[in-house]
Structure formats: C-alpha cells, structure tokens
Design goal:
Elements: E1 3-4, H1 15-24, E2 27-28, H2 41-48, H3 61-66
Parallel strand pairs: 1-2
Length: 67
Amino acid sequence: MTTIEHNIPVSMLYDDILTLYAMSGTGSTPTHIVNYGGMFGEQYLWATEDIPNDPKYAFSPIIYCML
C-alpha cells in the first residue's frame, strides 16, 4: 500500500482514478496547507480565524514561536 500525501490538483476525480486508488490500495492524506490553484488551508485559517486569541490554541508551540 502507498499513500499520496498532497492533494490531487483537480476538482473532480473520475472513475478511472477512483478505481486505480481502490484496486491498488492507495490511500490519500491531503495536506491542507498545500493546495494547487487555490488558497492554502493555512492562509485561509489565518484570514478567517483569530488564532492567537483562540483558547483552543493556548498551549500550541507554534503560537509561542510567533509571539
């Protein structure tokens, strides 16, 4: 089994690709900060969320690195 780490740069997957993935046992783990032809997931989050003041991230190491 193999896994594709990044997003496939197309908006719709057709039966040929879906069959290839299913028959070969290939998995997909999309990396949401890597995107092709659109906004990166990280940019979207920083643009739409108040991450430094969100209590969910109070102990996140990335926030401390940025302060």
